[in-house]
Specification:
single chain; alpha/beta; 6-stranded antiparallel beta barrel; elongated; cell projection; cytoplasm; flagellum
Length: 450
């Protein structure tokens, strides 16, 4: 049936929210409405709360130009009077590969309009039924030695990438987007600095990475609903490819800025700040988003696809126990910690292998490979404990054979972990190079370079 339009009007503007009269009994949380400002421009908005007979909405754009009396419109279906909300969904198609879009599915790359797929994908889908989704797949070649060996990843696994600002997260993400052995990459830049977007697309990601990717962008200057929905939109696009049985790599930078957007929305509707200023709804929404990644539902006619996801967490002040980092770490299947001090020594990727882990490792690596990583961790841990004494000359060679071995082998392990953005190393070669570094019979510097 043809849709009808219900009309309302703005009765007040307060901070980020607008109060609207006229939709009582028709609207619900999450509904999309269209607001017309005094310049005659139509701006989409989302209903985020109710108070008595008024609804409060937040616009997907600036609030300038809105005042009391501005018109609001919400489509209805004539047959039942129910809501008709095409704005709450996307229509992804395979032709979106190589494109850059915003949270509303609008193109940002100047390449013309996006084609629409036949099926609508809701932005806020529910995760697959836990008892009916596939298990983790085979291990996934990430192309990066330190991740392949110390945090080996399986198809459908979800990892957190924890780092402070300026430690090399974006470069690591670009290496993953270009080198990971997957069918499709979906990249969400949530709250990214606008100046860095073109640098990421052209320098870090490049034409090779973009060709098999869909990039969803909401920069830091966009309203909080745009930044929040960038994460939902990227997840919906990833689910489109997952349901075709494909192996999808989802990279989201960052979950922290997604949570900051949720905090702005929650505080604007009067939620009490609970943990370090975050309202309770933030920590209720996190698992609803993160659990959508992973193995897809079991299908009778074709193999289930997987969404292998890496979510970056921007730890404030390098505090890895702050609330968002702590909550994300408890939901995901492992974490990769990047350390500023390691980056300052010139070793990139600046991954701290002693603080990083993958919960899927015991089930996907061979006993020999697990033994290699255990030995390497033990050597690095011992060397870290003795580093100050060695630098000060307080340790005398020959005092402890284990320390002597750590002094010989730790620099060779560090050399294996160092990798430029142009390098690609397979899973097998990654473990082979680690084995060469741990072979004490080989002279230093004999490691095979890629």
């Amino acid at each position: 049936m043809y849709p009808a339009i219900s009309e309302g009007c703005v009765s007040g503007v307060s901070g980020l929210g607008l109060r609207i009269d006229g939709f009582a009994g028709l609207a619900s949380i999450g509904d999309r409405v269209t607001l017309r400002n005094r310049m005659g421009e139509d701006v989409p908005a989302e209903i985020i709360s109710f108070h008595n007979h008024n609804v409060q909405a937040m616009v997907y754009g600036p609030t300038e130009g809105f005042g009391a009396g501005a018109r609001a419109y919400m489509p209805l279906r004539l047959s039942t009077g129910t809501r008709h909300l095409p704005g709450n969904s996307l229509h992804p198609t395979d032709e979106w590969l190589g494109r850059v879009i915003d949270s509303l599915g609008r193109p940002l790359d100047g390449k013309g309009a996006l084609p629409f797929g036949d099926a609508a994908r809701p932005l806020r889908a529910t995760p697959p039924n836990a008892t009916c989704r596939d298990r983790l797949g085979t291990r996934l070649d990430l192309g990066i030695r330190v991740l392949n060996t110390f945090t080996t990843c399986r198809k459908g696994q979800r990892l957190g990438l924890f780092a402070g600002s300026g430690v090399g997260k974006s470069t690591l993400l670009s290496m993953l987007a270009k080198r990971t052995d997957c069918d499709v990459a979906v990249i969400a830049l949530v709250g990214e600095r606008g100046r860095e977007v073109r640098e990421f697309l052209e320098d870090d990601l490049g034409a090779e990475g973009l060709a098999r990717s869909v990039v969803v962008i909401a920069t830091s200057d966009t309203p909080p609903v745009m930044r929040r929905d960038a994460a939902y939109a990227a997840m919906s696009v990833a689910e489109h490819f997952r349901d075709q049985g494909k192996s999808v790599l989802l990279l989201m930078d960052s979950v922290t800025r997604f949570c900051l957007a949720l905090r702005e929305i929650g505080l604007s509707v009067g939620e009490p700040p609970a943990t370090r200023g975050y309202p309770p709804s933030v920590f209720a929404e996190l698992p609803r988003l993160l659990e959508r990644a992973g193995p897809g539902p079991l299908l009778a006619d074709r193999p289930a696809g997987q969404i292998t996801a890496l979510f970056t967490v921007l730890v404030e002040g390098d505090d890895h126990n702050e609330p968002v980092a702590d909550a994300v770490r408890g939901i995901l299947d492992g974490h990769v910690v990047m350390d500023r001090r390691i980056g300052e020594t010139g070793r990139y990727p600046a991954v701290d292998v002693l603080r990083s882990l993958s919960r899927a490792v015991p089930g996907c690596n061979s006993a020999q490979e697990n033994d290699l990583t255990r030995r390497a961790r033990a050597i690095l841990a011992l060397y870290a404990d003795m580093a100050d004494m060695i630098r000060l000359g307080a340790y005398r060679a020959g005092s402890d054979p284990a320390v002597d071995q750590a002094v010989r082998l730790a620099p060779r392990i560090e050399a294996v972990l160092k990798q430029t953005r142009e390098e690609h190393t397979s899973l097998e070669d990654s473990f082979r190079q680690l084995a060469d570094a741990l072979d004490d019979s080989h002279p230093a510097g004999s490691r095979h370079e890629t």
